[in-house]
Design goal:
It contains 11 helices and 6 strands. By secondary structure, the protein is mainly α. The protein has a 4-stranded mixed β-sheet. The protein has a two-stranded parallel ribbon with strand order 1-2.
Length: 355
Amino acid sequence: MTASNEPTMGSYVTGGEAFERDTQYIEDRIVSDPAAVSALPAPPASKVGSLGFGLTPGAQAWPVEPGRYRLVAAAACPWANRTLIVRRLLGLEEVISLGMPGPVHDARSWTFDLDPDGRDPVLGSERLQEHYFKRFPGYPRGITVPAIVDVPSGGVVTNDYPQITLDFSTQWREFHRAGAPDLLPADLVDEMWPVMERIFTEVNNGVYRCGFAGSQEAYEAAYERLWVAMDWLEERLSTRRYLMGETITEADVRLFTTLARFDPVYHGHFKANRNKLSEMEHLWGYARDLFQTPGFGDTIDFTQIKQHYYATHSDINPTRIVPLGPDLANWQAPHGRERLGGDPFGNGTPPAQVR
């Protein structure tokens, strides 16, 4: 692990206040028919993305083009991890290349320190920041992953992670592998949207609300909200194998990346410690079921996950010591979820082994 020489001390916790995530992103989209999408009405405000709408004001439509774009996604980051899972489930590895920064970033941005000579082999850059600045000189917001870069120009196209995975499913359909799962089944979308919204506000973002709370009162309020939602999920998953029923959907992808980080990071580092995930019968079985499903667990790097949180959030963990535990061998234990019926891929097939 390469230590940063530009610490992020003070970057995350705001004294006396509840944490609020900055959800302003570069909302350009890569679509199969730019003219048609540009003619659609603008989407309503949403923190989980939209389906069936056009562009937000000022956004640009880019054409789907195999080989043109590079997804930059750190294995450590839960928001980027979503794109790794969906890209793999749909079989888009051959058409959208992948650049992977290391787990620890500094105040400037993510760096390609895992690559030879510290440079991305396709983009030739040392930092993701270079591609934001290439298109938006002096870009004032966070240099976040996932981000999609236009390889010919070197400029960032979008970092709008809630929309990226939806567009992988809908706009890149021509290039899906044979047997790819339908992560957005038409008959479930209306029911799935409020589920995803609650997962985002109360769980995906809820753990951060606990960890980045700036006062005891803000922390306790965040803690209560998180565990109300976790108990709701425990009950929901007691009678169904996956969030929406018998097969995996986009909702499962979005929940899984938080669950995978819960015991290694959020339980201790973010003080979300009423109990461990491994102490919740149905959520824990569900998480292991997904982890053992091709496309999910094979995108998880627990070492990088722990390095990222404990070494990057130096205002929470000033020593930047990365804990050795917990023992994670239990992720491979039998989950027993087959008793609820269903199959992760329905009528489809699992992706091939990781190359």
